[in-house]
Specification:
Largest sheet: 5 strands, antiparallel
Order of helices and strands: HHHEEEEHEEEEEEEEEHHHH
Number of strands: 13
Number of helices: 8
CATH superfamily of the largest domain: f41 fragment of flagellin, N-terminal domain
Strand order of the largest sheet: 5-13-8-9-10
Strand content: 5-15%
Shape: rod-shaped
Radius of gyration: 41 Å
Helix content: 40-55%
CATH topology of the largest domain: f41 fragment of flagellin, N-terminal domain
């Protein structure tokens, strides 16, 4: 095949130009450390890099969300632990108040202590997370949820919402509980029915704590009223939660023996002392009575501040203590249950943090491999291309000097 001089020159110039362009590109990659600066460098790689960058951004946001969620949950966990400590102190004071050797002054002193503990409890109920959001305000996280009105009653101004945050593609996590679920509710399991004596009782009858004998009995959800027709006889009526406020029909008259168990469906309760005719006592399911810990503590303080004198007054006081103790124990059970739930959510977030960290590292590695310069490979290729260019230049110089006239001469 015959090649003209112009073709030969053009071919060599084009080859060397390509090699110089390749050297320039390799030099840019080596000096910048970036192998994929424009989509033209690697169209497929550029598309993959965009996808990996998007994934990395999403994972970064999930990491931020997980950190914030865990921080809030840890703060709530710690706060609920402190709440439980305060409630335990209150429970101890209730037991002390039941000591028959105390006088009205002693009980008044206990009431003062309870007022201080109630104030501590309200401070804890107004706790904030590290972001400054109120833990127990529901969706109203920027407003203090608990305050005391002009009548000295603690009121809740939050809502029943529960804040959540997205922690991965398919999961959200609850980062806080509203105040009503902690300080105004009872847990579905582990609670006791609340015994109480009527305020107008005139006898010395004192109701005790309720014992659960058959947890599966559906009538445990009923409210029971024990009414004495004489000091030695009583009737029991029950009200179904399906018809609240509608008094039940009294059952047959039964003989009363002080201290003996009175069966109420799958529960039992005992009454000591000597009730008078028309005296009455109730056993109410925990979910149907007062569940507001602040209202219950306010009633307890009032009970302790009220002077006690005489058998009827003493009996009323002792029954009121039993009521308060049961309500408080139900609240403690609710706080313990809520704290266990928070702990479970903490573990879930921590497990997802481990997965997210692994995914972030893998994504970052893949993106680096795709967009960053492999120095060993790039320098080797640069050296090889540079050698090839130099060889081409030298060959071109030698070949272009060859002429037929040299041989003719």
């Amino acid at each position: 095949m015959r090649i003209s001089t112009s073709q030969y020159f053009n071919m060599n110039v084009a080859t060397m130009s390509d090699q110089q362009a390749q050297l320039s590109q390799l030099y840019a990659q080596i000096s910048s450390g970036v192998s994929l600066s424009t989509p033209a460098d690697n169209p497929l790689g550029a598309a993959q890099a965009v996808q990996l960058s998007s994934t990395a951004t999403t994972l970064s946001q999930y990491t931020t969300n997980q950190t914030a969620a865990l921080s809030s949950l840890q703060q709530e966990d710690s706060t609920l632990g402190s709440v439980n400590t305060v409630l335990g102190s209150i429970h101890t004071l209730i037991l002390q108040a039941g000591d028959g050797s105390l006088n009205n002054g002693n009980r008044g002193a206990i009431a003062t202590q309870l007022q201080g503990l109630t104030s501590q409890l309200m401070t804890l109920a107004n706790s904030t997370d590290p972001q400054g959001n109120y833990l127990f305000a529901g969706f109203q996280s920027t407003a203090q949820p608990y305050s005391t009105n002009s009548a000295g009653v603690v009121t809740y101004s939050g809502d029943t919402g529960t804040r959540t945050v997205q922690i991965n593609d398919s999961s959200t996590i609850q980062t806080a509980d509203n105040g009503l679920s902690i300080f105004g509710s009872v847990a579905p399991v582990g609670t006791s029915a609340v015994p109480a004596a009527a305020a107008n009782n005139t006898g010395s009858g004192v109701i005790g704590s309720v014992s659960l004998t058959n947890p599966t009995d559906p009538t445990n959800a009923d409210t029971y009223t024990i009414t004495f027709t004489s000091p030695t006889t009583y009737t029991v009526s029950q009200t179904s939660p399906a018809t609240p406020g509608v008094p039940g029909t009294p059952g047959p008259s039964q003989t009363f023996t002080a201290g003996s168990a009175i069966t109420l469906g799958g529960q039992s309760v005992s009454i000591t002392g000597t009730p008078n005719a028309t005296d009455s006592f109730t056993v109410t399911p925990a979910t149907q009575g007062s569940m507001d810990v602040f209202a219950n503590l306010n009633q307890l303080i009032t009970t302790l501040q009220t002077p006690v004198s005489g058998a009827a007054s003493t009996a009323s006081f002792q029954s009121a203590l039993t009521t308060s103790a049961t309500q408080l124990e139900n609240t403690i059970n609710n706080v313990v249950t809520a704290r266990a739930n928070v702990g479970g959510r903490e573990q879930e977030v921590q497990a997802l943090q481990t997965v997210t960290q692994a995914n972030t590292l893998e994504t970052s590695t893949n993106l680096t491999d795709l967009t960053q310069t492999n120095m060993v490979k790039a320098i080797s290729q640069y050296t090889l291309t540079q050698t090839a260019l130099q060889a081409a230049q030298q060959a071109f110089v030698k070949i272009q000097s060859v002429s037929l006239f040299q041989y003719l001469n």
